[in-house]
Amino acid sequence: MDRRTGVRCQYVTTAINVRNLRKVYPGQPPVVALADASIQIRDNEFFTLLGPSGCGKTTLLRLIAGFENPTSGSLEMHGQSLIELPPYKRPINTVFQSYALFPHLTVAQNISFGLEMLGKPKAEIAATVDEMMALVKMTEMADRQTSQISGGQQQRVALARALAPKPKVLLLDEPLSALDFKLRKDMQLELKRLQTETGITFIFVTHDQEEALTMSDRIAVMSAGTIRQIGGPRDIYDHPAERFVADFIGDTNFLKADVVSVAGQTAMVRLASGQTIAARTPEGADVAGSVTLAIRPEHAGIEAGSGGLLSGTLGEVVYFGTDTHYHVALPDGTAFVVRQQNRPDRADDLATGDMVSISFAPDVGQVLRD
Ligand SMILES: Nc1ncnc2c1ncn2[C@@H]1O[C@H](COP(=O)(O)OP(=O)(O)OP(=O)(O)O)[C@@H](O)[C@H]1O
């Protein structure tokens, strides 16, 4: 963003450039933890690596930090290769899940420790420690031992310690997973604030899709050592390119459809009901013949009768407080869920066994890549 004009800058610089990065751990058989992954992470970006356990998120983070050497591929920071640089020479710092604080040292001593190791002058260390404690709102606890503060406060100290040397990139490996739900929500906002205030590039690892959607500028969805899709939270959620992404992030209905025609990124597809609708296609994908369409449950509407795009028989109706989930069986046996937000003015007059009609806006369907 141009601070003067408020206009989003068109030309962004790449902070970390990962190209065809591969990591194979030796063993019988060897484990391909990362299979030729390519990502460009921009300056000042909150970038999240999201995926299920074992998909290679931590491996990619450890390669960027320098704790592991790649089997092949390149890894650059601002155009300079990082691969020959030992971890301590990279302008990169890491916040671990375990925090790794020194329990017998105070909050201030934990933050100053790394700066002392770097041989910074005393006055500069004191000023930075004060600045960091203010940034994470821990000034009043400066003299407490870290064994005597709460989990959330320890997390703040770990962040302050990692930010103190002013790295260009901060790596965060599931840093909120040890916190309870409420604290986790607070810290999500806090992390986002810290990233915005410091302007440091954050590379954040999580398997929690909601956490990724709420905090990130962009997300890379990973599976089995590969990057499946990269995009902004809305892009990934509204336009998943393939079944794995649609399934892993949020709830999705999958419908079989036949492609009638394609123009640019829009396809006309015929549903099993015989109705033809427009749907988005994934970038760069050739779509033809029989395809799978993803439609989010909250993007569909439901009413009694049989005049909509789809009709079927209403099965379970599940009340969730904020919304209600309607499970519909379509004539070909496909299950379709509609999620409606509950409102005092919306009558709850549908019952199990009713014939119902499902409708959705013409452009909410997303054709998935094979
Ligand atoms: N040192 C190692 N030696 C052998 N295999 C390893 C090693 N470290 C990781 N792996 C394997 O590499 C794959 C990727 O692991 P990685 O820790 O990167 O996944 P992850 O996505 O971070 O998982 P999690 O969310 O559970 O931390 C897994 O199959 C894992 O078992």
TrEMBL record:
UniProt-listed Pfam families: ABC_tran, TOBE_2
UniProt keyword Nucleotide-binding, yes or no: yes
SMART domains membership: AAA
EC number(s) per entry: 7.6.2.11
Source organism superkingdom: Bacteria
Catalytic activity: ATP + H2O + polyamine-[polyamine-binding protein]Side 1 = ADP + phosphate + polyamineSide 2 + [polyamine-binding protein]Side 1
GO molecular function: ABC-type putrescine transporter activity; ATP binding; ATP hydrolysis activity
UniProt keywords, alphabetically: ATP-binding, Cell membrane, Membrane, Nucleotide-binding, Translocase, Transport
Annotated Gene Ontology cellular component terms: ATP-binding cassette (ABC) transporter complex
InterPro entries assigned: AAA+_ATPase, ABC_SmlMolc_Importer, ABC_transporter-like_ATP-bd, ABC_transporter-like_CS, Mo/tungstate-bd_C_term_dom, NA-bd_OB-fold, P-loop_NTPase, PotA-like
The keyword DNA-binding is assigned to this record: no
Gene3D superfamilies documented for this protein: 2.40.50.100, Nucleic acid-binding proteins (2.40.50.140), P-loop containing nucleotide triphosphate hydrolases (3.40.50.300)
Family statement drawn from the similarity comment of this UniProt entry: Belongs to the ABC transporter superfamily. Spermidine/putrescine importer (TC 3.A.1.11.1) family.
Function: Part of the ABC transporter complex PotABCD involved in spermidine/putrescine import. Responsible for energy coupling to the transport system.
Subunit details: The complex is composed of two ATP-binding proteins (PotA), two transmembrane proteins (PotB and PotC) and a solute-binding protein (PotD).
Record-given protein name: Spermidine/putrescine import ATP-binding protein PotA
